[in-house]
Amino acid sequence: MTSEPFDPFHLHGADRTSRWLITCDHASNVVPPSVGNGSLGLPDADMQRHIAYDVGAAGVTRALADALDAPAVLSNFSRMVIDPNRGLNDPTLLMKLYDGTVIPTNRDADIVEKARRVDAFYSPYHTAYAKLAARQDDTIIIAIHSFTPKLKGRSPRPWHIGILHEGDDRLSDPLLDILGEQGDLCVGDNEPYAGHLPGDSVDRHALQTGRANALIEIRSDLIETEDQQVAWGKRLAPILMQSLARMEA
Q1: CA 59 to CA 68: how far, in whole Å?
Q2: Which of 51, 52, 6, 46 is nearest to 29 (CA)?
Q3: Do the bridges between strand 72-75 and strand 9-12 make them parallel or antiparallel, or are there none, so unpaired?
Q4: Domains and CATH numbers, the chain
Q5: Is 231 exposed, middle or buried (CB count within 10 Å of its CB: 0-12, 13-18, 19+)?
Q6: Helix runs in 10-89, H state only
Q7: Distance, C-alpha 120 to centroid of its chain
Q8: DSSP per residue, 153-169
Q9: C-alpha 221: how far from its chain's center?
Q10: 240 φ, ψ to 5°?
Q11: How does pLDDT run along the chain (249 residues), one tens digit per residue?
Q12: Count of CB atoms within 10 A of residue 74's CB?
């Protein structure tokens, strides 16, 4: 097992003083060298799919952070290594089967290996996340994710964008209203998933600390290219500013 140094997170615009904090839990499909010598035993085609990371989400995160002059924190490891958007007691924290695909390197991973990955990747990411969130008292967390247009054996998903929320609707309610006013978007309210999971990133860093927040899901076929990612980031920035103004009116 290699001991090469590995950075489990990336900070973008860390010195910016905006109250916005943009996050991306599933930014990367990278497998650290210390995990299976850099491989989960899957073909490259699978590593380019949503099972490995949120396609396009990292580019939207950086573009949105730039448009808001805000800092961002992005993971630098595949969700299949250890999922930073799960609580430590969540059984899906370390997945062995995902959307019908067996993950060979994870098949025999025991509790010792799981704990090692938590210490090496998961915890440093969340420590950096918490530090940025605590810069000021009025931080607003915007979590960027993407979803696949269709899961195996399921119906196509019609939504262009979805807002996930539960327990704190201060920002999500006006955000949903303004997105609905756009006229050209199919907007999901807790779609394609519902709310939050106990111990997930928004729960941990926003709900448990009383910070206003929204989790934004964008359909991945709409953000496959850099131009699309930048366009969505630039589009969302003024919408979020309007949402904040309505929240605080």
Answers
A1: 14
A2: 52
A3: antiparallel
A4: 9-248 (3.40.630.40)
A5: middle
A6: 44-47, 57-68
A7: 19
A8: TSPPP--SEEEE-SS--
A9: 16
A10: -65, -40
A11: 445 689 999 999 999 999 999 999 999 999 999 999 999 999 999 999 999 999 999 999 999 999 999 999 999 999 999 999 999 999 999 999 887 788 999 999 999 999 999 999 999 999 999 999 999 999 999 999 999 998 777 889 999 999 999 999 999 999 999 999 999 999 999 999 887 889 999 999 999 999 999 999 999 999 999 999 999 999 999 999 999 999 999
A12: 24
Give the residue carrying structure tokens 């430590």.
88
Structure tokens at 52: 């490995």
User: What is the Cα Rg of the chain in Å?
Assistant: 17
Cα 92 to its chain centre, rounded Å, is: 16
- Helices marked H in 169-210 — which ranges? 172-180, 201-205
> Where does residue 58 fall: left (phi above 0), alpha (psi -120 to 50 degrees), or beta otherwise?
alpha
* Whole-Å CA distances, 213 to 190, 206, 226, 231: 14, 6, 25, 22
Tokens of 212: 């206003």
What the block records as the tokens of 181 is 């006013």
C-alpha distances (whole Å) from 175 to each of 78, 202, 229 are 29, 17, 19
Contact 10, 27 (CB under 8 A): yes
Task: Tell me, rounded to whole angstroms, the distance of Cα 91 from its chain centroid.
Answer: 19
